């Protein structure tokens, strides 16, 4: 590891970053609201289309702070400047693909313009390998595309959204000397801590959903269902924080030492989005169950419950593989996850009342948590 990388290991999340994350508490809550009840395919698609740009903005700003540190006034100023843009995206999200799509686009442009100054200043340093065209392309060009899309009617607007994100993805895929330098500088502790804190935000939204649903339906069956739902959330948190973060630290460290840029990029920028999306849709299904515990879950809530659990474990399996864990070791816990979802959770969500379906999901996640604990005792690598 380079000297810069060794020094980066001391970098931990600061209070200013935690303040910055408050806007994402609102963003997740607003976007998750559209999945309550009986969401259809369009509702799930809307959630993913609007959640990914918000996640993408967060992870890019997180990496910016990882490289520059959070203690300096310039970085803190950048975070403050970016927060209103993210807030605008959150406020526009309920109609983010319709009447407020223009505002959502302007919020995305705002975030990119806010980050430009730091990266441009670094590119201008004589001792830096980062070419000036990269921050210009990644921040100004893509921000300009988002801004222009605000004036373009649907569906052309969404083509421009895809183009803007596509340009950023292509730039990340391009390997340059500056790319190696930046990946060497990344603090693994900070990466794991920041992604873990984002997961905390999503888990917190899950608990909030359960409590609000119980508040609105203050009955014995709803309370019992909320308690079972809380067990589901707590068990997912246990799997992630007791074993997932340890595996992530180890895997990212190996990837950085071997300069496996693609593995680091995928496991930090792309795959956690699948994981947090899974937790979010699970929470929506649990809230629906608390609303009507003695009824059967509607089809959309069944998809959310079963698909969310599957997404959570699929993301973890994919991250394990990107870290270089042997496929056989990953399959030892991923195959049971697939089997329990297919054989237990799917039939339960269809045949049983909502409270019982949530109870079965708690049992499934508990069994998989025990399997994760057993895997950890055997010192098997994983996420």
Number of domains in the coordinates? 2
According to DSSP, the number of beta strands is: 0
The whole-angstrom Rg is 21 Å
Termini separation (Å)?
22 Å
Q: Quick one: biggest sheet?
A: none
Write the layout of secondary structure elements.
Layout: H1 3-8, H2 15-33, H3 41-68, H4 73-92, H5 101-123, H6 133-149, H7 156-173, H8 177-185, H9 188-216, H10 220-257, H11 261-291, H12 299-322, H13 327-351, H14 354-377
Walkthrough of the structure:
The chain has 383 residues and is mainly α. The protein folds into two domains: 1-186, no CATH class; 188-383. It has 14 helices and no strands. The protein has helices spanning 3-8, 15-33, 41-68, 73-92, 101-123, 133-149, 156-173, 177-185, 188-216, 220-257, 261-291, 299-322, 327-351, 354-377. Helix 3 (41-68) runs antiparallel to helix 9 (188-216) and helix 13 (327-351) runs antiparallel to helix 14. The protein is globular, with a radius of gyration of 21 Å. The two termini are 22 Å apart.
